Amino acid sequence: MTRPDDTMQPTLAVEHLRTEFAARGGAVTVVNDISFTVRRGEILGIVGESGSGKSMTAYSIMRLVDAPGCIAGGRVLLNGQDLLGLNEEQMRRVRGNRIAMIFQDPMMTLNPVLRIDTQMIEAVQAHQKVGRAQAREMARAALARVGLPSPEERLLAYPHQFSGGMRQRVAIAIALLNQPDLILCDEPTTALDVTIQGQILHEMQTLCRASGTALVWITHDLAVVAGLADRVCVMYGGRIVESGHVRDVLERPRHPYTAGLIASSPSRNRRGAPLRQIAGAAPPPSELPSGCPFRTRCPHATPVCATMPEADVQDGHMWRCFHPMREPEGAAHG
Amino acid sequence: MDTTLAIAETPLRRFVRRYAASPMAMIGATVLLVLLLAALCAPWIAPQNPYDLAQIDILDARLPPGAHAYSGKMTYVLGTDEQGRDMLSAILYGMRISVLVGVSSTVAALAVGLTLGLLAGYAGGRLEGFLMRVADVQLSFPSILIALILLALLGPGIGKIIVALIAVQWAYYARTARSAALVERRKEYIEAAVGLGLRPARVVFRHLLPNCLPPLIVVAALQVASAISLEATLSFLGLGLPVTEPSLGLLIANGFNYLLSGKYWISLFPGIALLVLIVAINLVADQLRDVLNPRLHMP
């Protein structure tokens, strides 16, 4: 995936990450041999449908996987340091400090009984030795930075006094408080309406570019990735089936699953025509087929797909498929 | 949810408005407030100090309600007991002790049970299994039996009866706190707090605890009543407080022998005071349960 001009050490490098859940009849692998890198100021989109392992990937990076789940292998390198080797206290110092996470539902991620200033001040003081007044000033500045009007008054409010979009801005402001190297966003705009989503996407993009923060944006929405990300990983069945620069992947998809996803998203250019869909439903992680996880739904599958295809790489564009799509077919949509 | 309304109405005001919706609960709260004030101010409002031997006169023993003192200095509105103590004063002072014992043992048991229950619910695993089995074993014994055994071992005294009541009550709070913690810790704001890198103690006590409180407040309000009646029971049986510090239960016990000889007032009036106190607490607790139940008031 490395391009010749990228000699700098990546902010985040995930190498062969595996996360399993203990279940009756053996472990179920929900994150399977995931590798990707994100550099300073870069935005990586991770796309996949429910159950594809995209959220679990973020939780694994944060080491927030609860029992019966566990990280079974691989490395998560943050600025070259393996997070999986840290003890719990060292990891606590990374969370919210070097890596911040923004969750899906802004209604749920703020503590309903604590005022916004309390929650923001404690987030600062968990990682920085600063006084209350100074922490409060940092909180006020962070709220102003994410575009909340009259931040001084907002600090004194409780979460229930905010709308969904404002709460997500507060969550983003909290994530920005300690100037993290990396922000993991787990579908943070899914619960918001489209106009607010557009504003927040734009602001996040601007903030990350300005501060050099690396951003991992997890979503099921290809349109969000198209407008926001530099590079994209497409996940299916716990694996990355295709990755590369957003333009390459979206305009010239090589994996049949990516092509199917693109074909099944609504578009202005094909108004009135019935939406194409991928046949069947994604199997639960415990019932994935051997080899290529997509082969049971894939129109091009042949017996050879029962073994896992190796990654093909071309100009930073990676795919895992024995029968990659020809360019014209994928380029039909753009 | 209407944002403007939410901003105009603080959580406290909303709580008061919902509480005041029930007239019975308001009566309960008023009665409780009057009783608590009377108990608290007993040294200033009671006609005499029933423990000051200089103020009581054995010649006034077992006078019926409304009788005048031998010295002519005062009227015994509720009569006197076998030592010539004014029953009204004794009840006020007795209620003071009953409330003190009930409230302090409940608060202490709440603190112990809440801490252990939160730890069990948050940490899970072996600690949870151990704590909850201990609570289960304890709850399988009648509370009066445990209290009797403890008091037999410890001897009488206010501190000791409080210890016994804590030992009897903590398990209720631990179980309630654990079940609340199990629900709350799966919510995203706890995950988010851990994700912020807050220290575990802070996550538990600052984020988890306040959100687990509502069901515990209800249990505690009801437990105050049961602690007071348990203390009265123990005192009545002669195992509770020493005679020098009579609570309502001991006052009832003192008059018990005279009930059949027509001197009803020595037992009856402390009994009524105890009954009214406990009914008032229960009325308040019932309404608290309704107000604090999130299922009845989705915002």
Q: What is the typical, i.e. mean, pLDDT of chain A?
A: 86
- Which spans of chain B have pLDDT < 50 for at least 5 consecutive residues? 1-6
The main sheet of chain B comes to: 2 strands, antiparallel
Number of helices of chain B: 12
Structural class by SSE content of chain B: mainly alpha
Structural class by SSE content of chain A = alpha/beta
Return the CATH class of chain B: Mainly Alpha
Measured distance between first and last alpha carbons of chain B: 6 Å
Global outline of chain B: elongated
Find the CATH topology of the domain at 1-87 and 214-266 and 292-318 in chain A.
Rossmann fold
Tell me the count of domains of chain B.
1
Radius of gyration of chain A: 21 Å
Give the termini distance of chain A in whole angstroms. 23 Å
Number of strands of chain B: 2
Tally of strands of chain A: 12
- The proportion of residues forming helix of chain A, as a percent range, comes to 25-40%
Strand portion of chain B: under 5%
- Following the backbone from N to C, one meets helices and strands of chain B in this order, namely HHHHEEHHHHHHHH
Gross geometry of chain A: globular
CATH structural class of the domain at 1-87 and 214-266 and 292-318 in chain A: Alpha Beta
Helical stretch tally of chain A: 12
Structural description of this entry:
- The complex is a heterodimer of chains A (334) and B (299).
- By secondary structure, chain A is an alpha/beta fold.
- Chain A has a domain at 1-87 and 214-266 and 292-318: P-loop containing nucleotide triphosphate hydrolases (Rossmann fold).
- Chain A has twelve helices and twelve strands.
- An eight-stranded mixed beta sheet of chain A has the order 6-7-8-3-9-10-12-11, sandwiched between helices. In chain A, strands 2-1-4-5 form a four-stranded antiparallel beta sheet.
- In chain A, strand 7 (182-186), helix 8 (194-211) and strand 8 (214-219) form a beta-alpha-beta unit.
- Residues 1-5 and 329-334 of chain A have low confidence and may be disordered.
- Chain B is mainly α and 299 residues long.
- Chain B has a single domain (28-292), classed as MetI-like fold (Orthogonal Bundle).
- Helices cover 71% and strands 1% of the residues of chain B.
- Chain B is built from twelve helices and two strands.
- Chain B has helices spanning 3-8, 11-19, 23-40, 42-45, 87-123, 125-139, 143-154, 158-185, 188-195, 200-236, 248-256, 265-292; strands at 67-68, 75-76.
- In chain B, strands 1-2 form a two-stranded antiparallel ribbon.
- In chain B, a hairpin with a 6-residue loop joins strand 1 (67-68) and strand 2 (75-76).
- In chain B, helix 8 packs antiparallel against helix 10 (200-236) and helix 11 (248-256) runs antiparallel to helix 12 (265-292).
- The model of chain B is unreliable at 1-6 (pLDDT under 50).
- The chains are: A alpha/beta (334), B mainly alpha (299).
- Chains A and B meet through helix 2 of A and helix 1, helix 9 and helix 10 of B.
